[in-house]
Amino acid sequence: RGLEKYFPIKKGVMRLTKGNVRAVDGVSFDVKAGETFGLVGESGCGKSTTGRSILRLIEPTGGEVIFDGKDIRKLGQTEMRKMRKEMQIVFQDPYASLNPRYTVRQILEEPMIIHGLHGGAAERKKKVIDLLETVGLSGSRMNRYPHEFSGGQRQRIGIARALAVSPKLIIADEPVSALDVSVQSQVLNLMNDLQNEYGIAYVFIAHDLSVVKHISDRIGVMYLGKLVELGPAEELYEKPLHPYTQALLSAVPIPDPEIKRERIILQGDLPSPSNPPSGCYFHPRCKDCMAICKTTAPEWKEVEPNRFVACHLYN
Ligand code: SF4
Ligand code: MG
């Protein structure tokens, strides 16, 4: 609710600008048990910072993160450690996120040991083998090191590590972006199967709408630290409301050659969040920009049931 992460601007770097970089600027959404919430936007829009702020890997500067009815920002260290068992993260780069000096067995045992799960060594070893098999790898490879696996296999190990503590929520931060296209769908299918089996909720972060299309129940689109549109995945694809969503979607290829969609080219670059445009942050790049857009920020509104958008076109 109203999640904020402001970073102070370092003195001397940008002398003319005062105050903060609003990396996450009042973001609100719900994730239901067992659902996938896709969080989409260009790099630098604050989606990763949102994901990390939810887990308090980065401490938010404002707002609430309510999990099972509790604002986890109010939890002390001990309670927070328990809570971490419920929420895990899978990172974009499966190589950088796995300790190269640890065997796969050590990597998977670490979260169990931290959270005091699965008792003694024999029990943990059994769990490691189970986990590897759950993600489609052979348990016989548990004494190997990350570099002995392919990119897709390493991401499976990253997923197994998240599963080790049986979380209710996984923040998946661009989990397939670093993988070959042929491997991406395998990892997405695996995540989908795991969700069906264990009822895990995902916040699935991506810069590309085509990746989240099949996996998401609902999608939120972010621009410069704010949500600009949120709705059920299918409706958002059929009829994107916000001009930014329309532009992102126009870049997604349609498999059916009969259907033609006009490609909307975004003007200019993503502005810096340290110096955002006036009014609607998207106005310098918007094909539908009106006079009011340059002066007044649009309100976040539910314009149709379950469909939220911040845009003056819907006032
Ligand atoms: Fe475009 Fe105006 Fe809507 Fe912003 S508020 S997206 S500038 S039409
Ligand atoms: Mg990112």
UniProtKB/TrEMBL annotation:
Can you tell which superkingdom this protein's organism belongs to? Answer: Bacteria
What biological-process terms (Gene Ontology) are attached? Answer: peptide transport; transmembrane transport
GO-annotated molecular function: ATP binding; ATP hydrolysis activity
List UniProt keywords, sorted A-Z.
Answer: ATP-binding, Nucleotide-binding, Transport
Occurrences of domain ABC transporter (ranges):
1-249
The residue stretches assigned to a coiled coil in this entry are none
User: What InterPro entries does UniProt report for this protein, alphabetically?
Assistant: AAA+_ATPase, ABC_transp_ATP-bind, ABC_transporter-like_ATP-bd, ABC_transporter-like_CS, Oligopep_ABC_C, P-loop_NTPase
In which family does this protein belong, per the annotation?
A: Belongs to the ABC transporter superfamily.
Q: From the Swiss-Prot or TrEMBL record, give the protein name.
A: Oligopeptide transport ATP-binding protein OppF
